[in-house]
Amino acid sequence: MGGNIYGYLGMGFSIVVVVVGMISYITTMQQKHKTRQMQIQNGGDIAREEHYRKLAETVVLQQKQIQEGQEKLHGEIAEIRGRLTSIEKLLRDVE
Question: Which residues cross the membrane (predicted)?
Fold first, then answer.
């Protein structure tokens, strides 16, 4: 009877070791899968960030061009106002 107890204990110990090993293996595989998914997701995030960075650079360039165009138009309008004022003065003098 004493030999049977040790046999059962050895068998129980083996079962516990196998179960713990399986749990460790499953946990490791899940973590590897989650890590891989995060790497894939981060790769997409990096690509999106690069796209938005390029888009922002384009917008900044276009804003500078618009500002330069507005400044040019402002100068031309000021010149036209000056000419219009001188024409009005000339017309008043002619009357």
Answer: 6-28
The Cα-based distances of 17 to 3, 14, 28, 32 in angstroms read 21, 5, 16, 22
Q: What is the pLDDT of residue 49?
A: 85
**pLDDT tens per residue across span 14-55:** 999 999 999 999 999 999 999 888 887 777 777 788 889 999
Alpha carbon separation from 47 to 9, 40, 44, 53, 60 (Å, rounded): 57, 11, 5, 10, 20
> What angle is formed at CA 30 by the lines to CA 29 and CA 31, rounded to 5 degrees?
90
Spell out the SS3 assignment of 44-79. Answer: HHHHHHHHHHHHHHHHHHHHHHHHHHHHHHHHHHHH
Residue 16: Cβ-neighbour burial (10 angstroms; 0-12, 13-18, 19+): exposed
CA separation for the pair 32, 74 (Å, rounded): 62
